Amino acid sequence: MSHKAWMKTVPTENCDVLMTFPDTTDDHTLLWLLNHIRLGIPELIVQVRHHKHTRVYAFFVTATYESLLRGADEIGLRKPVKAEFGGGMRSFSCEEDYIYENIENELYFFTSQERQNIIRYWLENLRAKQGESLHNIHFLEGQPIIPELAARGVIQQVFPLHEQRILKRLMRSWVQAVCEAQPLDDICDYFGVKIAMYFAWLGFYTSAMVYPAVFGSILYTFTESDQTSQDISCVVFAIFNVIWATLFLEEWKRRGAEFAYKWGTLDTPPESIEEPRPQFRGIKRISPVTSVEEFYYPPWKRLLFQCLVSLPVCLACLSLVFLLMLGCFQLQEFVLSIQELPRIIRFLPKIILAIIVTACDELYKKVAYWLNDMGAW
């Protein structure tokens, strides 16, 4: 290790988010980003570590409890309120922190998922000033630094860390449990509301499928072998499925609303009024609706890009796929028409097609990412 990087290295006790760098990263890049994080986000605690075997540097990122409280206030994190103050869920406020449940307990007030969301919010909103640059990367004013460095490959990964203690508990109560209810509250606390809501729906759907399965089995058992009985059974089962599907949807609406109220997402604001994603670029202006400063990208420019770039590129990709598949089919017919060829040669067109599909998949994935980033400004 170099002397400069070693001076910034300290032992790590706690870590919520890990940021890793390629093994070719120089000290100037590490120190530049480290200084920007520490100056731009003083709430974070960043510790530098170096893996001696892989020679990879990493930033171990966490925050103090007081900083997390301020971050929860900034992003409007919803937390349960004590019963004596009305109960329910409310956006966190530092000015009234005494009304929230478990506020006195630093270890259990925030779940690991909530801590990581706050830290990710800070990292993604570290923005560049006018004229800032790193090597050959020139930032626009107000452009998010970390997403841009991740897109350029300067940052290898930014990811949250698991808590083995909670994972082991979920393994016992969820994965390894047999004929027991899912620990949905624990899943929500650890993975978040979206994941918990998915598994809540999946469990409800699986349970609801018992009714058509049992009714269909009974109907099949007592149905005669003649055509008339089979037709009547089909009509009865179809009517049953219509009634079952209607009841299933209505019951899930109620159950989903219960979970949403319980987990504090029933009255969350719609996505249309949320903050734009950090990767969004545009010109600064005063919003005519909210009268606050925002980034704005003219719709006509986006439409022009979609018509002159996105549409031709997509049509070209489709044409290329069509021509390649047509060529493989022609080659297949040609190979099958020659009886003297060895048996293994007959599989050659299929092998070529599989290779083409794999290569096109990787190519089109990169094209899709580029079109999405360029067209969504």
TrEMBL record:
<keyword id="KW-1133">Transmembrane helix</keyword>
<keyword id="KW-0472">Membrane</keyword>
<dbReference type="GO" id="GO:0005254">
    <property type="term" value="F:chloride channel activity"/>
</dbReference>
<dbReference type="InterPro" id="IPR007632">
    <property type="entry name" value="Anoctamin"/>
</dbReference>
<feature type="transmembrane region" description="Helical">
    <location>
        <begin position="232"/>
        <end position="249"/>
    </location>
</feature>
<feature type="transmembrane region" description="Helical">
    <location>
        <begin position="198"/>
        <end position="220"/>
    </location>
</feature>
<feature type="transmembrane region" description="Helical">
    <location>
        <begin position="303"/>
        <end position="326"/>
    </location>
</feature>
<dbReference type="InterPro" id="IPR049452">
    <property type="entry name" value="Anoctamin_TM"/>
</dbReference>
<dbReference type="Pfam" id="PF04547">
    <property type="entry name" value="Anoctamin"/>
</dbReference>
<keyword id="KW-0812">Transmembrane</keyword>
<feature type="domain" description="Anoctamin transmembrane">
    <location>
        <begin position="187"/>
        <end position="374"/>
    </location>
</feature>
<dbReference type="GO" id="GO:0005886">
    <property type="term" value="C:plasma membrane"/>
</dbReference>
<protein>
    <recommendedName>
        <fullName>Anoctamin</fullName>
    </recommendedName>
</protein>
<comment type="similarity">
    <text>Belongs to the anoctamin family.</text>
</comment>
